[in-house]
Amino acid sequence: MSGHGHLIDGTLSLLAHGYAWAPDLRRAHGGEPLVHTRLMGRHAVLLHGTDAVDLFYDEGRIQRQDALPAQVVDTLFGRGAVHTLDGARHRERKQMLVSLLMAPNGVGGLTARVESGWSEAVAGWEDRSVVLFDEVAALLAGATCDWAGLPVPEDAAREIAEDCVAMVDGFATAGPRHVRARRARQRQEQGLMAAVDRMRAEMEGRNPVPETVAETVALHREPDGTLLDPRTAAVELLNIIRPTVAITWYVTFAAHALHRHPGQRDHLRTDGPGYALAFAQEVRRFYPFVPFIGGLAAQDLSFAGDRIPAGTLVLLDVYGQHHDPELWDRPYHFDPARFLGHEGRESGRGELVPQGGGDARTGHRCPGEDITLALLGTLAPALAHLDLAVPQQDLSISLSRIPTRPRSGFVMGVESRQMVGGGRR
Questions:
Q1: Hey, which CATH number is domain 2-424, 3.40.50.170, 1.10.10.10, 1.10.630.10, 3.40.710.10?
Q2: Which of 37, 64, 214, 368 could form a disulfide with 149 if both were Cys (CB 3.0 to 4.6 A apart)?
Q3: Rounded to the nearest 10 degrees, how much is the dihedral formed by the CA atoms of 136, 139, 142, 147?
Q4: Which tens digit of pLDDT belongs to each residue from 191-247?
Q5: Could you tell me the residue ranges of all domains in the chain?
């Protein structure tokens, strides 16, 4: 560690350059797969490439516990969340979350609710302008709460959506955005704690079989047989709702792609589910969402002929990997066809890792990845079936802001006599 004391701390550079920070750092070091740096005063290494993905998602070599900065835990994930655990506790909690998606009313049940909500929402957008980002966030919040067994009225869904967006928007920064994120999490955790307490009181003494997502989380027991404390149960419920609302970023990026590449509309209208999935994968590759992922070296490690001392902060380059010309042909060209016949490419050598790598069932890969693909693969064709009016606006996407999105949120209008989904009203 002492050999790296001369390194310049990159925290201010990261805050200034955002998604470009990691690729620029590697470029300055000749494109090496491992670069030493410092972040927040501590020694860190930036890893890049498919071999780096294999290393990063080896739980015996990289740990998550104590790896995430407090400001990220307190805004994005919550204290005690599955993302912060390792070992048996992580596997047990992860299996509970994965089982929710594998249930008969899992991904398909949520997708059906989103499709129904989309049809209703589009009918209300006729002959007026809406901000797509805001509307999709409210739609996903309401559908996810209903699917989880926590139905809420539309006005409450919009409040939940605003809080979930604030949590994601403020996790990587200081100042007002961070303060809003912390307050939003506190507000939603308090409401979900009360819901958990009510469910437990109603089911006390009945030894019931959980029938909803919320009941499953409320009645989940840790490896030692104890129920999750109410706050942790609320955190895990929020870690189902909040990431689903975050798909709003990808849906808005999908609209941006359709606007910039109108020829994609015909493909989504006529080429079926396979093309929709390829389009969803390309949106996740091309557009910036996660800049990098962090963990801690659980032991002294070696990578690319270099040493990583135990306790070192290990960063896996995500944005840079998705735009690496050695992994992708014309990486800055939006081309869903690159995934046709290779829709599962991300599960191979780890080229595509927007929601992590490794095994989603046992490792730290996001268990909601299937939800992301299902909803994005549903809503992108739905957007393509609408002949949208897109007025002049600022659709620029700043790489210096994490997380980023089209600056305007994508203002659009839907004229009457439009196609809703695949059919005419």
A1: 1.10.630.10
A2: 214
A3: -100
A4: 999 999 999 998 887 777 788 889 989 988 877 888 988 999 999 899 899 999 999
A5: 2-424
